[in-house]
Amino acid sequence: MLPVIALVGRPNVGKSTLFNRLTRSRDALVADYPGLTRDRKYGDGEFAGRTFIAIDTGGLGGVGGELEGLMEQQAWQAVREADLVCFLVDARSGLTALDETVAVSLRRTGKSVLLVVNKVDGIDSDTALADFHRLGLGEPVPIAAAHGRGVQRLMELALARLPVPDEAGQADTAAPPDTDSIHVAVVGRPNVGKSTLINRMLGEERVLTLDLPGTTRDSIHIPFLRDGVRFTLIDTAGVRRRARVTEAIEKFSVIKALQAIDAAHVAVLVLDAQLEISEQDASLAGYIAEKGRALVVAVNKWDGLDSYTRDTIRGQLARRLPFLDYATVLFISARHGTGVGDVLVEVQQAYAAAMRALPTPELTRILEQAVQAHQPPLVRGRRIKLRYAHQGGRNPPVIVIHGNQTESVPHTYQRYLANTYRHALQLSGTPVRIEFRTGSNPFQGRRNKLTPRQVKRKVRLRRHVQKK
Question: In terms of domains, do 309 and 198 share one?
Answer without folding.
Answer: yes
